[in-house]
Structure of Sulfite oxidase:
Amino acid sequence: MEIRNRPDEWKIEQGLSGAKLPFLDQTGPEPVFIQPRAWPELTKDQAAIDAVGNRDELFTRELEGWKGYVEWEKYPEKKEKAHKILTSQVFPPNPEFQMGLIPDTNPVLPGTHWKMWHHAVGGELTDVPEDSWKTVLREKHPEMLHLLQFPYNGEPPKRLVTDKAVTPNSLHFVRNHGGIPLIDKDKWRLDLDGLVKNLRTFTFDDITDESKFPRIEKFVTMQCSGTRRIEQISLYAGQGDEVPQAPWAEGAIGTAKYLGINLKDVIEACGGLVKPAKHLELYGAETYFKDNEVMNYVVSVPWSKVKYDEVLLCWEMNGEPLPAIHGYPVRIMVLGYIGARSVKWVYRIKAIENPSLAPVQSKEYLYFNQQTGKHNQQPTDGIQIQEMPVSSAIMSPWTKQVVIHNGKIHCKGWAYSGGGRWPERVELSADGGFSWYAVPNANLSKKGKWTWRTWSIDLPCDVEGWIEIVCRCWDSSLNTQPLTVRAAWNWGLHVTHSAHRISVYSINKTRARTAEKLKQFEATGSPLAPLTWPEEFPTQSWDDYKKFWEENEPRDVD
């Protein structure tokens, strides 16, 4: 008899190794199993690559004092040569992290493709992955969770996310889309062009000159559209790629005090916009890759956002010069929008008529209908994500945690809403969302038009065993969160704004038997943790067992 089982057959059948699960085609007279594709042989056409030319000369540093910066947008022929290099070789696959176990390493994911692409293009990009990691180690807290080593994506551990209402620079999350350029502020410049009356170039001294531009200091919460993505991944896999779809948890949000100027004032210093300008295209100095194409990081924001003083040029963060990893020497801050629009290492702003056609604006950060996916998606099906909806998250306790309490479980977390709205009420439930308790106003941090509110509550909980704690927020416009992750799931795995749910094992010490049993664990030295470890002492004496049945009816009756 032919045995067809594989050693991992059970895991595949149970969906625990989904990347190996064959597709089932039921459109014909007989079902057909379509096996996952084997990765092609790793090949390299060295002759084609050599024919491109000397990479050190082709992809040289664009400006003195701008290490790691290559200008792509002005040179289509340079883009073509980089494209030829990338398409003349086969790179290894990305690691599978949605349909299998996420690695228990830190960094979690290495960014294999992006490192190899930088090395393949070469020239000024050759050392960018290694230089960027050195910057991470130099500027970030040693306890940061490195979700993606390159380009760097990292968030603080839960216990530190809301430790302070203002996030220290070293603990502020980072979502980079490329390497970290190292730019000398005395060499930095900003070009304003496109549909402006007068084309101008500004230096660092120009924009920090208070006689020309009044300074503004604002507390701003920035949130990645991928915040809490792990909840969507845990439910259903979505668009795959370790860079756009890094497995963010609840820490991809942070609040800092920024010093800068209104971008509107800089536009006015150029004589203002000329018709038909309605959008501003923002250019960042990092190198970005998409579909074997090479480019600078480019997005856009509408003029209507800029003219209401909601887009800033900033050079300080929490009273210090911007860290390199956060965009030194100057970055854009778009208040109330997803972090992807707040361009780091900004070097050019171009006034245009319509939203940017650059891939990050037009083909990424899109919110799709739930029936849209790999089989049918196209960019125009998605809504370009700008303002973040209302959201909240529980930072303590953690899901699957055992909590010993005296009838109340102490919980803490954050709440936020984009677009200039703010959290007005935060509510928690210990019974899956049937009964809600409002966080006392005294336990909410100060309101701010552009900031989160951190919170804490002693949540009443009488029941024991597995419970589901749920958190939701109502913002100043009375928007609230959908109650399930399924309601928020989308192919791009963006904007997980459903009510945050965690499973907790409740041990209520106010119950007499529980208190007595806990003393027994302590007296015998029997481990209470982990929860699944069997007790090392009898949970009931035989005398008590027999006495119970003497005083009660038997299990079965005649």
About this structure: The chain has a mean pLDDT of 95.
